[in-house]
Structures are given as C-alpha cells and as structure tokens.
Amino acid sequence: MNLEPMSLFWLAFTLAAYLGSRWLYRRTGRYLLSPLILVPALLLAVAVPLHTAYAEYARNTHWLMGVLGPVTVAFAVPIWQQRALLARHWPALLVGMLAGSVASIGSSWALARGLALDPSVSLSLLPRSITTPFAMPVAQDLGGVPELTAVFVMFTGVLGAVFGGILLRWLPLRTPLARGALFGVGAHGAGVSRAREVGHEEGSVAGLVMVLTGLLNLFAAPLLVMLV
Amino acid sequence: MNPVIHKTVRLLAELAVLLGLFLLGGQLAAWFGWPIPGGVMGLALLLVLFATGAVKPATLQRGAGLLMAEMLLFFIPALMSLLDYGSLLRSEGWRILLVIALSTLLVMVVTAVTVELVCRWRLRHEP
C-alpha cells in the first residue's frame, strides 16, 4: 500500500463513491444514478480539474482489478446452477452466442475501419460486448489496450441495457431464451441486471450466456489474432 | 459464536477459497505452459469440484454472489484510464460511441433472432 495522501484519497474516494452510488441507486432506481454511470462521472469530475494522471490514480486502486480473477472463478457457480437449462437448450444458445459474437466482432471491426479510427482503438473495440474479466485479456491478446476495452465495455453496458428494453418491444420474441440471450450476449453484466427485471428465466439465461460468451471469445481469441 | 462474526468469517473463508483457486489456476496454466488466464483455469477447477461432488455450489454461494454483484467496483480503476486518453476522446469520441451503439444494436438483434429461430425450429421438429 502506498501511503502518499493523494493515492490514499483516490482509493477512499473510489470506495465511497461506489458504496454511495449503490445505495442511491437502490433507493431511487434511477438509471443515471447507477454505479456504472455515476461513479466514473464523479471520479472524472474531480480528477480532470486536478490534472490527475491515470498512473497516479491507479497507484492504490489497481489491485481492485486483480479481484476480477477470483470473479472469473466465481462464474463457475451460475454455470453449474444453470446446467439443466444448458443441457436442454445448448444448441440454440450456442448458435446464438456464435452468431452474436461474429456480429459483434465483425461489425466493430468494419465500423471502426469505415470511420477511420486509430488502430489501437479499433483492436480495443473488438471484445467490447463480453464481460470485463474476459474482455481485458482478449484485448491484451489482440494487441489492444485492455483499459480502453474496459471503457468500451462500460459504454456497451450503459447503451445496451437501454437498447435491450426498446428492442424487446419491437422484436417478436416469444421465448424467454431469446430475450435473455439478447441481454447476455449484447450487454454483459448491465444486460443481466436488466434481464432479471424482465423475468426470472430471462435473468438466468442472460447470466449463463454472458459467462459462456466470454469463455467462447477468450478461446477464439488466438484464431482472431491470425485474422487481424 | 456471535452470528454476525460467524457470517463474516464464513464469507471471508469462501472468498479465500475463490482466491486460492484463482492462484492455483494461474500456477497450473504456467506449469503446463497454457496461455489461459488463471481465473479461467480456476473456473474449470471449480466446475470439476462441483461435478465430482467434492464441493457443493451452496458452499460458495455467498462469496461468489458477492464478487459477481460488486464486479463493477473491480473494473472502475480501468475506466479511469480515460484520464490519459483525453485527446483521443476529443478527436474520436463520437465516432467510437457510434461504433459501440450500432454494433450493440446489431449484436442484440442477431443474437435474439438466431436463438428465437433455433427454438422455434426445434419446437416444430420435436416429436
């Protein structure tokens, strides 16, 4: 632990902003107050005027990212608990996850090329629809910037949770499986929370599919490296 | 023992097991020379433990649930990398957002429609 006052401040501020925002969001249910949006906004609102560099912010906070490793281990629990669902519906889910992943990586790549984005930005965009603990190592493999990928993953979650709700009204989806997969493949963690509001089965499907899509992308990354 | 202390100790023990599996997974991947993250190896180990009945999912439910529920906290530091990309965001920010928005819409439609079609096809063809 670094005892320099500013780096202790950033750790304390990050934890306080997170806990405060989580409490506010639970009380009000307002999407703009959810930790996904409010915490980075608060931190940036203080850090930008102070001209804080990322390295300075990260000195005492980077270990939090290390916890994403044990989070990945914890993903075994939803996989195991939903194994009956997986055994019954694996063909539909597998085809959906493959189609969704190809659509995600293909469209990110094509759009980034079309809009002439910086190459490191384009590579960091490719894994943006999977959950952060998987997206960051995939970005690393592809030669992108894992931290930028985390930023893009966040924006995907913020937008995806909203888009998903709108799409459900427009698409004639009769099965909870399709509604859950829409959120799990398209908007990872933020999508899973939204899917739980839609229904119990949607939430379970989304949670399972989020983890499996992350694994699928991680194991497909070496193939992707050959393509890009 | 005081129930609050008991619960806390129990939770810490569950978190320690998950951390241990992560570290062990990383070690195994290094020994075998596999380019697989420690977390994914740990996930596979835990699935094996569940499958053999050595560990019951309920045993780790609170610890695993806590880590997954608070996952956002663990990637907030990465979001702050934005501090070093101010000029990039000013020049490409809107284009990046456009890519994310369009691609996310497409992914959702493609995934949902694919799963729906496969489900309906299977319903029609099941005896």
From TrEMBL, chain A:
Q: Which domain of life is it from?
A: Bacteria
* Mode of membrane association: Multi-pass membrane protein
Q: Mind telling me which residue stretches traverse the membrane in this protein?
A: 6-25, 32-50, 62-80, 92-112, 150-171, 205-227
Q: Does the keyword Transmembrane helix apply?
A: yes
Q: Where in the cell is it found?
A: Membrane
Key words of the record: Membrane, Transmembrane, Transmembrane helix
Carries keyword Disulfide bond? no
Q: One short Pfam family name for this protein?
A: LrgB
Q: What is this protein called?
A: LrgB family protein
Tell me which species this is from. Answer: Pseudomonas farsensis
